[in-house]
Specification:
Layout: H1 2-35, E1 41-42, H2 51-60, E2 64-71, E3 81-85, E4 91-92, E5 97-103, E6 108-110, H3 119-128, E7 132-139, E8 149-153, E9 159-161, E10 165-171, E11 176-178, H4 187-196, E12 200-208, E13 217-221, E14 227-229, E15 233-240
C-alpha cells in the first residue's frame, strides 16, 4: 500500500510540474507578446511637416522614414505630409519604418477668363487643364464678336477641379435689320413701323415745315434702307407749323 501511494505521489508531482512548465511557456511566449506594447517608441505626429523636418524627427527617435507617394489633400498645403503610417501615437520598436505621403494640394484650379476667344482655342486650354467642355449656348451680344466666347459656367475665376465640365456661352453678334422708310408717314405710323421692325423710337423733335403737313415725319436717322443693329434707336424729325 505504501509503495502504491508513493508511486501515485510521484506521478502527480511530475504531471503538475509538466503542466506548470507548459503554462509558463504559454504565458511568456504567447500571452505576454499579445498583451504588451509592440515597442517602446511613440510614433510622432508628422502631419503638416516637410519631408526634411520629418526625417530629423524620426531619426532622433530611432525610426526610419520612407515617402510612399503623393496625394491630393484639401486641408494640408502642397509639399507637406498629409498622411502617415503607423498613425501618430502608435507604439513601435526601434528601426520601425514610418511611411509618409506628400500633399499635392487641393487639386483645385482657377478657371481662366476666355471672353473674346474662339471655342476651339478654349477647348484646347481646358483640355490641358484636365477640364471638359460641356453645353455650348449662344446669345446676341454687341460687345463680343460673333462666334467668340462671352462667358463660361461657372464664371471666370471660379475654383474648379480636374474632370469638371465647363459650359460655354458664344456670341451670335448683333442682328442687323434694314431700316424702314418713315419719311412721309404720320408719327403714330412711324412709331409702329419702328417697333414692328425690331427697333425702338429714339429722339423725336419738331420743326416748322411748308412741305409737310403737321405730324408727318420729315427726316429720320439712320436713313431708310440702312442696316442697323436690331434694338437700336431711330430718331425722327416731325413737321409742325409756326404758331
Amino acid at each position: 500500500m505504501y509503495y502504491n501511494g508513493a508511486k501515485i505521489f510521484v506521478v502527480s508531482f511530475i504531471v503538475s510540474l509538466f503542466t506548470s512548465i507548459i503554462v509558463c511557456v504559454l504565458f511568456f511566449f504567447v500571452i505576454m507578446p499579445l498583451t504588451k506594447p509592440s515597442g517602446d517608441i511613440v510614433v510622432p505626429d508628422l502631419l503638416g511637416s516637410t519631408t526634411e523636418q520629418a526625417r530629423v524627427i524620426t531619426e532622433t527617435r530611432g525610426l526610419l522614414l520612407v515617402v510612399g507617394g503623393e496625394e491630393e489633400d484639401e486641408k494640408i498645403g502642397e509639399n507637406l505630409i498629409c498622411r502617415q503610417t503607423p498613425l501618430p501615437g502608435s507604439m513601435v520598436g526601434r528601426k520601425t519604418t514610418v511611411t509618409v505621403f506628400i500633399s499635392k494640394g487641393s487639386g483645385k484650379l482657377v478657371l481662366p477668363d476666355f471672353k473674346g476667344q474662339g471655342l476651339s482655342e478654349a477647348t484646347v486650354k481646358l483640355s490641358e487643364m484636365g477640364l471638359k467642355v460641356g453645353e455650348v449656348k449662344s446669345e446676341e451680344n454687341s460687345e463680343v464678336d460673333k462666334d467668340k466666347i462671352i462667358s463660361t459656367i461657372p464664371p471666370a475665376g471660379s475654383r474648379v477641379k480636374k474632370g469638371d465640365v465647363i459650359s460655354v456661352v458664344l456670341s451670335r453678334g448683333v442682328e442687323l435689320v434694314k431700316v424702314p422708310r418713315l419719311i412721309g408717314k404720320s408719327l403714330s405710323t412711324a412709331k409702329r413701323l419702328i417697333e414692328n421692325n425690331g427697333f425702338k423710337v429714339g429722339n423725336v423733335s419738331w420743326e416748322v415745315s411748308i412741305d409737310y403737313n403737321v405730324g408727318i415725319v420729315m427726316r429720320q436717322s439712320p436713313g431708310a434702307g440702312r442696316m442697323a443693329k436690331k434694338g437700336s434707336a431711330i430718331n425722327l424729325v416731325v413737321a409742325t407749323v409756326l404758331e
